[in-house]
Amino acid sequence: MMTSYRTRRVARSALFAALLSSAGGVGATDSATELRLNAMVGDNTAIVELLDRGAPVDAANAFGKTALMFAVEANEMETVALLLTRGADVNARTAAGCTPLTFAAEGGHIGISALLIARGAHVHDRTRAGWDALMIAARHGILEMVEQLLFKGADPKAADRDGRTALMQAAARGHVALLAPLLDAGAELESRDRDGATALLIAADRGQLAMARALLAAGAEVNARDALGASALILASSRGHLELTRLLLEQGANPNLQDADGTTALMEAISTGHNALIALLIDYHANPALEDTQGRTAADRARQHGNHEALEHLAGGH
Fold first, then answer.
1. Whether the Cβ atoms of residue 190 and residue 198 lie closer than 8 Å to each other
2. Above pLDDT 70, what percent of the chain?
3. Rounded distance, CA 187 to CA 171, Å?
4. For 43-65, how does the pLDDT look when each residue is reduced to its tens digit (9 = 90+)?
5. What angle do CA 211, 216, 218 make, to 5 degrees?
6. What does the pLDDT look like over 244-254, one tens digit per residue?
C-alpha cells in the first residue's frame, strides 16, 4: 500500500510540475490552471473549492483544452460528472477541434462517452482532421462504443479528410466485429477514400485476412479498383499476403486485371520477390505473357529485378 500511495503522490507531483512549467512557473499559476490540474488527477475536493472560489469551469489552456477534457482523458468519471454538473461545456473544442467526446473515444472510456452523450454531446462533431467519435472508436475496435454512438445517431457514412469512413478504419485494423453493426446502420461497402480505395482494398493492402473474408461475405466487389487501377489482388500480391491472395482468387478475383501502369498481380509478386505466390496465381490462370505499359512481361520484370527463382517458375509453367 505504501508503494501505491507514493506512486500516486509522485505522479501527482509530476503532473503539477508539468502544468506549472507550461503555465510559465509557479508565479504564473491561477485558479483555472489549478482546476485543470486537479481535473487530471481527479481531486474533486480541490475542484469544488476552486469552483466555489470562482474558478472558470471552461477556462482552457493554450491548446484549448479544458478541465473537462483533462478529466475525460484521465478516465475520471466522478470528476467528469462533477464538472458537467457545475456547468462545463460538453461540446467545447480544442484548437485541433477535439471535443470531450472525441477524447473519450480515443481513450475507449465507454462509461464516460455514455455520460457525455446523455448530457448533450454532439456525436457528429469532428476534429480538424475530420474524425468524429465513431471513426475514432472504429479505428480502435471499441465495439460497445461503436454500437452506443450508432444508437445515438452517429453517421456511418461520414468520412474524414482522407475520405475514410468508420468502416474503412475498422477494415484497416481488422476489427471484424464492427462490420455487422456498421453495415446494419447504413455503412456502404463500396464507399471510396481519396485514393479510390474501398474497405476491401484497404483490408487487402493491410493483410487483414479475416476482415477481407467478412467483407466478401457481405458482398464487397472482389474486383473493385482504386484510382491507380490496383485491385485487391494486386495489392495483396504486392505485399506477399499468400492466404489473402488465395482467398481473393477463390472468390473470383481476376488475376489478369492490370493497373494504370499495366501491372498485374503476377508482375507485382515477381517484382517484390514474393515468389511463393507465383504458382498460385498461375494455377488460377494468371497470364505471364501480358505486357505492362512499358512492354514488359512478367519474365522481363523477373530479369529486371534479378529474380532468378521467378524465372525458373515461369519457365516451368509454375
1. yes
2. 90
3. 12
4. 999 999 999 999 999 999 999 99
5. 95
6. 999 999 999 99
| Closest by CA position to 256, among listed 289, 279, 227 | 289
pTM value surpassing 0.85: yes
**CB–CB of 232/204 below 8 Å?**
yes
Q: Residue type for 294, please?
A: Q
Write down the H helix ranges in 126-178.
133-140, 143-151, 166-173
Distances (CA, A) of 306 to 52, 286, 291: 75, 21, 18
Please say whether the beta carbons of 76 and 39 come within 8 A.
yes
The pLDDT value recorded for residue 17 is 54
* DSSP, res 177: G
Fold of 209-318: 1.25.40
CA 277, CA 132: separation in Å to the nearest integer? Answer: 39
Cell output for 79: 470528476
pLDDT band at 2 (very low <50, low <70, confident <90, very high): very low
- Could you tell me the pLDDT band of residue 10, with boundaries at 50, 70 and 90? low
User: What ranges do the domains of the chain cover?
Assistant: 209-318
CA 75 to chain centre: 21
d(CA 190, CA 285): 27
